[in-house]
Amino acid sequence: MKTIISMLAAALVSGCVGITPKYTIEEMDAITTREYAGKTKDEVFAAATRVFNASDDGNFKIQRFGGELKATSWHAMIFNALIFEWRVLPEDSANGVVVRVNSASKIDALEMPNLTGKGVYELFFGRLDYMLRLSNSWPTCAEATNRIFKEKGRGDVAALCYSYANNSDEPSPPR
C-alpha cells in the first residue's frame, strides 16, 4: 500500500512541473558546472551553506565531509516523506574553483526521475553568485518559476523552493 501511495505522490509532484527535456551528458555537465575564478573551495563551501540556509525556509540539513557538501531537505507528506538532496563538489582549477552540483529527489527511499531540468540549477548558481559577491541580486523562487513557465520544458525549482511558506526575501550579503 505504501508503495502505491509513494507512486501516486510521485505522479502528483511530477504532474505539477513542465516536461523536462532529455539532456546529453555534455549538456548536463554544462548545466551543473560553473568555474569561479579567484575563489577557493572554502569560499564556495561557505557560500553554498548560506544559499541552503536561506532557501526552502532554512529546512536543509547541511553536512560537509571531505571535499563535498551535502544538503538534505525533508518534507512530510500524508504517508511518506519527500526528500531533496544536493551535493556540491568544488575542485581546484588553474583559475580558481570548478563547482559541480547534483540535485536528486526521493519519496522515502524511492528515487524519482530528475524532474528539475536546468531551472533549479540556474537558481542555485544565481544564488551562489550572490553569496560569492559576483551578483548584486538574489534570485527569488517566483522569478525562477516565472522564467521556467516562459521557457517551457525546464522543470521546476522545488528542490530549493518547496516550503509552502517559502521566504524569498533577499538575505543579507556576506560580509
Can you describe what's shown?
- By secondary structure, the protein is α+β, with helices and mostly antiparallel strands.
- Helices cover 36% and strands 26% of the residues.
- The chain contains six helices and six strands, in the order ααβαβββββααα.
- β2 and β3 form a beta hairpin.
- The protein is globular, with a radius of gyration of 16 Å.
Keywords:
26% strand, six-stranded antiparallel beta sheet, 175 residues, alpha+beta, globular, disordered N terminus
Short description:
It contains 6 helices and 6 strands, in the order ααβαβββββααα. The N and C termini lie far apart (51 Å). It has one domain (2-161): TATA-Binding Protein, CATH 3.30.310.
